[in-house]
Amino acid sequence: MMTDGVGGRGSATRARLLAAALDGFVNRGYHGTTTAFLAERTGIAEGTIYRHYRGKDALYSAVALQAWEQAAAVVLEEPASRVSARERLAHAGRRLVREAAAAPLMIRFVLGEQERDRLDEPARRAADRFREAVVQLVASGKQEGAVRSGTAELWAAVWIAVVSVVCERVARGEWGAEHPNVDLALEGVWGAIGVRREE
Known about the structure:
Elements: H1 8-27, H2 29-32, H3 35-42, H4 46-52, H5 56-76, H6 85-102, H7 104-111, H8 121-143, H9 152-171, H10 180-193
Helix pairs in contact: 1-3, 1-5, 1-7, 5-6, 5-7, 5-8, 6-7, 6-8, 6-9, 6-10, 7-9, 8-9, 9-10
């Protein structure tokens, strides 16, 4: 990242750019979010954008890094007391849903289609940390004998897919964070990955 050396004013400008870019990337896509659009949206001269970020890929990576780190922190937060993997996954799912209500653009970015080849290495690592955090939760369930046979990566992908649908509905305002379908989905995904009685 490049900076203009203006301290607090530079930080405020970068924050405005990141917020506008997040909105653009979620609602217009990578290709539809141009530096000209961001300049118009923020009132920041297009040339000034390049004083903060080397180009659109660098801005995309900065948005992704911030979003993925926030999402990973949500998943990695431990419940107040020692609980089963099923409860830890439910806790993580509910926290992501609450985050979808509070920060819908961030969640839609994280759980939506990614331009992974545009990301720099730190942003890619942040994306991997989020997925790995879910894999570790599922793996702990396998160690407890509570998760079905199959790889933790497979069942983590199933969990992420279901939670993504729920978060998308909440982020779009179709459901509230306390909508009954939230708990139904979290129970349903555990039904898909948890050990069945006949196993």
